[in-house]
Amino acid sequence: MLSGGSEAARGIPLRGARNFLRPGETLQTVYETRFITYLARFLLNFDPAANSWWTKQGFVGTWDSSPDADDRALVENKFAEFAESVEVGLADYFVGPYGSYSSLSAARAGISAANPAPSLQPTERRGLFEKVIFGSERVSDQDDKASNTKAARQGILNLLTLLQARYTSLAAKRQLAILFSFIKSPQLQPSDQICGLLGEADNATISQITIEKSTLPYKEATSRISARLGGGYSLGTFPTVTVDSPPPLGDKFRPAIARPVMRVTSRVLQINVIDGGEGYSSPPQVSVLEGNMQRPCQAVAIINRRGNVDSVIVLDPGYGYGLSKEVPPKIMIDPPKKPRGNQNVGKDQTFRRARAYADLEYEIVGVDIVSGGSGYLSYEPPSVTISPPVQDPDWFIAVQELPELRMQPLAEKFLFKAKVTEMKYPDGNVAFSINNSRRRINVDGSMIRRIQRDPLEMLPSSVRPERLIKDREFKNSIYTIPLLDAIPQDVADVNPLYRAQDPIFGGIGVVPVTKGARTLTPSEYARLALSGGICTVFVRTILNPLELVKTKQQLKNDAELFTYAASQARNLNVDPPTIALEDKPFDDDAEMDRIAAGKQVAPTKTEKVGVLDILRGLVSLRGVSSLFQSADITFLSSLVFGTFGFGATELFRRSFAAVFSDQEAGAATLGNEVTLLLAATVATIITSAVASPFEVLRVRSMGLLEDKSLEAVFKDFLMDSGSEAVTAPDDELDWRKLKPRDFLPVWTAFNPILSREIPFVVTKFVAFDVISTSTVAFLNSQAGEGALPVQIGVGGVGLAVSAASGAIAGVAGAVISHPADLIITKVSAQSGKQSKEADESAKGDWRSAVKDMISQEGGIANLFVGLPARASFFFLVIGLQFFLYDYVKGIFQVSSDDLSLVLDVFYSVRAGLAAAN
Fold it and tell me: Which of 160, 312, 411, 521 could bridge 271 with an S-S bond, Cβ 3.0-4.6 Å?
């Protein structure tokens, strides 16, 4: 797994039924196959933690050009698993709006969030049949396009923002631009951000801007279209040259600054009235005074009702004014005409000549670069805008002057533009020139074969996405790599181990890279313990008859049952009610003093009574309910063993693994096996301490001829142990009179229980691990090519392997621990008052029991009395336990899949971002 941080942060839980994906299925509908596989390659190359993980798998450096077929399949399958881990991360965090990543600053602040909000994914609306026919639903296919597209685009922008901030090298920026060009939907592709990435990588500056004018046929001296070819400006109203800002954001990227180069056109642009004069009754003559012009300027004055010259309109700008010193011509306006003769003139009427001056027209002929800026794309030069004149000097002309322009609207009369014709890289080399054609890097067959061969190989950074107008409906341009667009993203015949497969960049596995979580929440531990308790109670209650038979075989104190079972074994007709009750231990070496019904004979030492014989005898003598004698105490004992046994084992296994082992949980290593056995041993000690009282009472209850309640068995036990709380059989149990020392005798069997449980548990786990691992390895080796691997406890075959391995492990554990179990039965069934030195007697009980059994005829073999019944019991118990435990864990959502963590490929990305911050 990726290093650094907590286990929870480095893994993504497998939520829901995420087991195996079939070919064509997907966890999300935003990111396509080519994007996911190329992102996997990007992380393996540029992310140190991902590259370190890849190296730990044994894949160092680039892949050999001619590897062994098995090795090639291994590396391809491991890459496919990594790619599926990438998809899991995308589905969880980068499909819809994610709270912690609403902005870059929020991403830095939210990396350590305890419960980050998952992505808001679009709802899949197609049914199973529709998905088979049409495939998985894409965002653009859904009815609610606006909301789903907005959510998906936000997820994509979050991902790009995070990657862009984390990986800052020029090569990484170019590869990110290639990566996000694989998002083909015009509504989803972050084309502006791709442009920004390319700008950051190129970081070109503008070195030359050229003015381009129309080549329409006209003569300068006779035409008046200069205002449409960059003219129309006066000395005080030169235009502003604006260069578009560079695509990248940030203070280090600045737009270019340019200024216009102006030249006089020798035409009169406008005549400005500075004094309108007085007393004009008709428009005066306007004269433009200069002798060296080639064509005279013609102008007309406009007067208002008050007799003032309001303005002067230039009808013809003329040509040839101010060529030498750029001095405008003088303007002469005729004085007002005074009335003649007897015309009435007011006493206050005044007459004064109007005055005006002329402005020469200037045109832009070039652009000087003040600052070249930075962050521009080398092959996408920015636009240059020149501000238009303050006023159109030909505003009063209704028809275009030249015939070539008369079919065009007047608004399109500007026949010039400025454009960037050269840009340079920071090192001074030319990045773009209008005179040089662009050199494209071709994606040829040899490059594709090299990429297919090596999971770490990527497209060369010199391969650049190109802008393409694709969707006219949205009027949005997208970036694409044309030569790759001709190759389909998915192959038709997909390997069963792959969910999808890109023919160039590899496959996406049906399962991701996973590991078991080492740290769990208290709720998860509680559900694990409850799962163990439920399966143990269920199995041991169902198999209570076998446990009962085993106990009676070991104690041999039910003469009635054994006599009847023996007679039935010899096919003798014995009436059950006539059999005499003999309340003393049954001995194989002696005949019973008296038997029931006259001619019947008690079994001799050569006769053996089987498990089925005893079961039939119990049913015949005491009914079916007798098979579940001591079921109430068995329930409590099983609940303790199951809850504490499984729960404590899980707790200590994960705790010890976190402290003593660097291996992943569940990895088949010697260190993990030792950790598991150590955890099981500690858990067994704790479980035995808690379960000892219940186990003592359970065995004692099963040793009785008639079933008694838990309270009655406990009362009898207190009487036999000399407690003052109960002095006579008929006394009621007063719990208030009990003292702490009255409870101590129930732990007399702790040492025997511990000596039974530790060998049993250790043997059970070792046998189960060896058998299940070997079985799964054999099944996988015999599977056909492309078959899904069998996993222990996962799927039908995995559960069957788990059950069968558990059954065999149960028999092995039963054989190893049976002597200790027999001693527990003997010690727990002892009756009679103990002396005041109860503790000393308790210590000697199990030793004396061992000596007595070994001293009898049969010797050591006596320690294995009742083994067939117990072996059968645990064959069924452990097999069913392992099966039901996995099944119930799935119901409570704490199965191996639920507690598995997918390799969080984005953890180191976020952690690195926070560290950089």
Answer: 312
Angle formed at CA 891 by CA 497 and CA 779, multiple of 5 degrees: 35
Q: Rounded to whole angstroms, how far apart are CA atoms 819 and 387?
A: 102
**Residue type, position 371, single letter:** S
- Residues of the chain by 3-state class (helix, strand, coil), percent to 5: 45, 15, 40
57: tokens are: 């798998």
CA distance 911 to 817: 50
Backbone angles phi, psi at 344, to 5 degrees: -70, 130
Q: Give the C-alpha distances (Å, rounded to integers) separating 719 from 712, 713, 727, 826, 831.
A: 11, 10, 6, 18, 9
* 205-213/286-289 β-pairing: unpaired
Closest Cα partner for 179 from 472, 553, 458, 474? 458
pLDDT (mean) for 731-736: 68
Rounded Cα–Cα distance for residues 149 and 155 (Å):
10
Residue pLDDT, tens place only, 767-789: 887 888 888 778 877 665 555 66
How would you classify the pairing of strands 11-13 and 900-903?
A: antiparallel
Closest C-alpha among 751, 916, 774, 768 to residue 850: 751
Could you give the CA distance from residue 798 to residue 375 in angstroms, rounded to a whole number?
A: 57
- % residues pLDDT > 90 (the chain): 15
Q: How many residues does the chain have?
A: 917
Helix (H, G, I), strand (E, B), or coil: what is residue 893?
coil
CA distance 898 to 894: 5
175-210: b (≥16 Cβ within 10 Å) or e? bbbbbbbbbbbbbbbbbebbbbbbbbbbbbbbbbbe
- Chain segment 63-115, per-residue pLDDT in tens: 554 556 667 788 888 899 899 888 888 887 777 665 444 444 544 444 444 44
Cβ within 8 Å of residue 387, ≥6 positions away:
239, 240, 241, 242
> What is the C-alpha separation between 156 and 189, in angstroms, rounded?
8
Q: Distance between CA atoms of 604 and 588, rounded to whole angstroms?
A: 6
3-state secondary structure of 587: coil
Residue 118's Cβ-count burial label (10 Å; 0-12, 13-18, 19+) is middle
DSSP assignment string, 653-711:
HHHHHHHH--SPBT---HHHHHHHHHHHHHHHHHHHHHHHHHHHHHHHHHTSSS---HH
The residues, ordered by sequence, that sit 6+ positions from 911 with a Cβ below 8 Å of its Cβ are 4, 5, 9, 111
Token output for 718: 């207190």
CA dihedral of 864, 869, 871, 874, whole degrees rounded to 10: -130
Q: Nearest-CA neighbor of 507 among 136, 38, 31, 822?
A: 38
pLDDT of residue 474: 43
Query: Crossing angle of helices 522-542/544-555, nearest 10°?
Result: 60
With the C-alpha atoms ordered 794, 798, 803, 805, is the resulting torsion angle positive or negative?
negative
Q: How far apart are CA 644 and CA 637, in angstroms?
A: 11
φ and ψ at residue 159, rounded to 5 degrees:
-60, -45
Distance (Å, rounded) from C-alpha 362 to C-alpha 540?
104
Beta strands 330-333 and 241-243, pairing class: unpaired
Residue 727 backbone dihedrals phi, psi, to 5 degrees: -115, -20
* CA atoms of 495 and 697, how far apart (whole Å): 59
User: Counting Cβ atoms within 10 Å, is residue 570 exposed (0-12), middle (13-18) or buried (19+)?
Assistant: exposed
The number of beta carbons lying within 10 Å of the beta carbon of residue 673 is: 15
Tell me the DSSP string of 795-824: HHHHHHHHHHHHHHHHHHHHHHHHHHHHHH
- Residue predicted with more confidence, 131 or 671: 671
Residues with Cβ within 8 Å of residue 798, at least 6 apart in sequence: 776, 790, 791, 792
Other Cβ atoms closer than 10 A to 649:
24
